[in-house]
Amino acid sequence: MVGAFLVSTIFQYKFGKVNKTFDMPKVGFIPLGFIIAFMSTLVGGLGPILNPFYMNAGLEKENLIATKTANSFFVGIVQIGSYAFLAYSLSSSGCMVLY
To answer: Does 32 have pLDDT greater than 80?
Structure first.
């Protein structure tokens, strides 16, 4: 599903001939960030999913990279906290599974 979304962006932008395919309001990044952070915790790295949204918000290349870096940093901090909480809660209940 993620791969299909990423491939569809090529066609949305008509192979680079279109700069913007929809309007992305700044407030829309709040729920989008939470959704991507949650899915990323379960699936893995989903950074490229945000690219079309950043591009439609009007970010240029340098600003897009800086925004993605900051976003990845904060998502990583939240993931570390989530994994630590889950490890602590599962180990205290005796359900810890080690590989």
So the answer is: yes
